[in-house]
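dumping this here before i forget
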Amino acid sequence: MESLAPVAYLTLAIAVIGGYLLGSIPFGLIATRLGGAGDIRKIGSGNIGATNVLRSGRKDLAAITLLGDGGKGAVAVGLAHLLSHGNPLVVALAGGAAFAGHIFPVWLKFNGGKGVATFYGVLLAAAWPVGLLAAATWLAMAALFRISSLAALTAAALAAPFALATDRPYPILGLCLFMAVLIYIRHKDNIARLLKGEEPKIGNKKTAEAPPPEA
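structure:
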């Protein structure tokens, strides 16, 4: 495990708190409201992520959400890298904090998104080979099955093996495992629908459904 001795605790606190606050910015909710699409929490699954924004029929807002949710994770990691001179433990903690901020944003009563875009943003900034492999996994699974959740779950499950295969530091391996566990927890309803063969495919427009209580 990377030692914290050369890193000031103030720097660590700034990286973690700053990462969480960056991660908690709800780009999907902001984009749909400013874009005139209403409250994304009342559309489709009720989730604030890019996949559900796409169900509103607004590809432009979905793209903005995707870039925003991924970008905030990358920015959090990048700033932590600069503050700590590349200390892997601080970078991993900041990335994990940004990811947790997206899923549990204080501004939305700790009820946020499922974390997939932020997962990729964090990985690409913290360990780009792992991020690229995870992104390639998502693309391959999405092309084969056209089910976003299945692609995300597969990529999340393989992130830690990718980190081992590319000889990433242990804090990055821990970050991959932490994000994968939360992604699986947040996708529990998707997993249930996958097992029943009822999970909607990419591009389906679902505007009439009320959001589930846990969305």
